[in-house]
Design brief:
CATH architecture of chain A: 2-Layer Sandwich
CATH topology of chain A: 60s Ribosomal Protein L30, Chain: A
Strand order of the largest sheet of chain A: 1-2-7-5-6
Number of helices of chain A: 3
Largest sheet of chain A: 5 strands, mixed
Distance between the termini of chain A: 25 Å
Oligomer: homotrimer
Strand content of chain A: 25-35%
CATH superfamily of chain A: RutC-like
Helix content of chain A: 25-40%
Radius of gyration of chain A: 15 Å
CATH class of chain A: Alpha Beta
Shape of chain A: globular
Number of domains of chain A: 1
Largest interface: A-B, 28 and 34 residues
């Protein structure tokens, strides 16, 4: 049996990649050599920030994990746009997570793991695992609860 | 008519590149292969932080946009120092903005766009457009209102 | 006299490299080409976060500088694990510091310099100096007072 494509995998996961519109005067991604730097993605769904506010206050952990996945879906949409085929991603290199939160929050790992797990689910055990950092911040563009950046090695 | 140089363009924009003195025990930039990683730059003018405090509280949006441009001028000064000629910048790859702010602020995009616009103005429509992320943070070195990092592809 | 190895240098500095266990669903580092991206490291000592809380409130500057060094020791442990020999580090490229702090703090440079100094001490004046940025953030994973990321050029 032939391996299923990443597009098929996305379909199985019921993930529909959105169109990407940068929030400001920049581009969704820049390629330099074999590295693709993807701009910070917010938890937009159907063109709107679906998850606003502070994690742990305005959003509980389960909702924040959905926000993290929404960021990843947008990151993948940029990869697809830039590369045509997601099979051209050779390695997810580094993912950076910024969580809009407040003093006292300390569930960064649980929230960010939702993003990391989805990347591994979509890209598999070879391409998907990545270096990562996650921090809490004071507000994000458009009142988003989260922002994520990604660097990928591409073919 | 020959295309004008980036130095001439800076002159037209009345931008004078300052001398760069790192705030601590690090170097202004490191080149690896064709990538140049520039250290975080603060909104220094004539050797001093010209824009201190929290954006949206101590600085309004217009002032914060000037601070963003001051950070970019310092980033360009590092590029010039490292490369000799700014024409050696092949591509602005990624710009990261950290805005010193408070809960309730959500004009990150307006502030950061000032930085992105200046980079495109100086480097042009091919080299200038970049991947970007911007977040709000709790205080920055020397009470700066902003900090910006940059990665460039260079010749 | 032969130059001493980096392992000997670590011994002189009484630094014992710990085993690295990622806090979540990610890997300690990813290599792409000659670049090694190291995941954010916390000030863990013997498997536990040794420096918790907000710098300037729960930790004074001297303690925070020890926390910064603990992050660096963990970064070096990842480099050693990935490369086998630390002599394979050709250049420390970029170090990013996230300090868990509060409005009013402005000693980022003093804290971060402890990290930078240790890197130069261990890797020497050619390999060690790096580009850097440092910002204050709202809480970090596991209540850590600090988090540090590193990019190295490797052989």
């Amino acid at each position: 049996m032939a391996p299923i494509s990443i597009d098929q995998k996305l379909k199985e996961l019921q993930i529909v990649l959105p169109e990407i519109v940068p929030a400001g005067n920049y581009v969704p991604a820049v390629r330099t050599g074999n590295l693709l730097f993807v701009s910070g993605q917010l938890p937009k769904v159907e063109g709107k920030i679906a998850y606003k506010g502070r994690v742990g206050k305005d959003l509980n952990i389960e909702t924040a994990r959905r926000a993290a996945k929404a960021c990843v879906v947008n990151l993948i949409a940029v990869l697809k746009n830039e590369l045509g085929a997601l099979e051209k991603v050779k390695k997810i290199v580094r993912v950076m997570g910024y969580i809009n939160t407040y003093p006292g929050f300390n569930d960064h790992v649980k929230v960010m793991d939702a993003a990391s797990e989805l990347l591994v689910e979509v890209f598999g055990e070879t391409v998907g695992p990545h270096a990562r950092a996650v921090v809490g911040v004071v507000e994000l563009p458009l009142m988003a609860s989260m922002e994520m950046e990604l660097i990928a090695e591409v073919r």
